[in-house]
């Protein structure tokens, strides 16, 4: 008997999967699934680009506060200096450019950091939504998505922030003056010095201290993954509550982002201090480990040593987060509209 299938007849129709109408349905189903994946990927990229753009704009607006807080974090506890006084002393010694030391590496860093973070966050969130068949994530699921995104981001971007911290503090061997003067009776300021470039700082670290030095402070940085987790979880939960009542505006995102970041920064600030000090420590300096560094700071400087520069940092973090979420929502909406226009033209 021949195995060849004969022409279809009423008594001998084609197999179900071989029928033209079902072949069309199979192709359509596969095409729909592929389109769904493509749309989701496009949406992830849109979120990532919006986050990167929002981070870049917010960082540029608040960078002088980062300079103040970072320098204060790596200084030993000394006489109190107000924010305005600290700004004046930096400007007197280094010019206005001193407030923006390391800005280029920071803008590059925040762009890469936010792109990676938001891409992986949206990817992880979509994974949880598909596996749980939920349209909304619980607080625990949001935190898990944030942890995955944050850990990937830290490992990829830590070298960028080591370079940025070195440039911001400008701890040079030929300059014995403290990075952030804290006493009213300081001597006359030396002439401003040219800021080192990002590339020269990177090259110097690798040449003098080795490539692995670019991953200094990675452990406290991984602990600090909880910062954006707390921030984004608080933001998402508050946003969901508000969305039940009305549409969330850019102003709402600004305020909710500020609240989330204020809480997260206050809780995690001691680890930010430890990370900053690890970034500027030389390779031959004896390491104390994360826990040892915390104990050492408390022993030598008191609890207050863990919170050096927190006023400037909290202000900067809150403003940056508020601007970030406001800019991100606006940029994301603009990208979605642009994508729809392109799709309509193609069709």
UniProtKB/TrEMBL annotation:
Belongs to the mitochondrial carrier (TC 2.A.29) family. Residues 183-197 have a biased composition (Polar residues). This is Peroxisomal membrane protein PMP47B. It is a multi-pass membrane protein. It is found in: Peroxisome membrane. Gene3D superfamilies: Mitochondrial carrier domain. InterPro entries: MCP_dom_sf, MCP_transmembrane, Mito/Peroxisomal_Carrier. PANTHER family: PEROXISOMAL MEMBRANE PROTEIN PMP34, PEROXISOMAL MEMBRANE PROTEIN PMP34-RELATED. Solcar repeats lie at residues 42-127, 137-241, 252-334. The chain crosses the membrane at residues 45-68, 97-120, 140-163, 211-234, 254-272. Residues 22-33 have a biased composition (Low complexity). It comes from the Eukaryota. It comes from Meristemomyces frigidus.
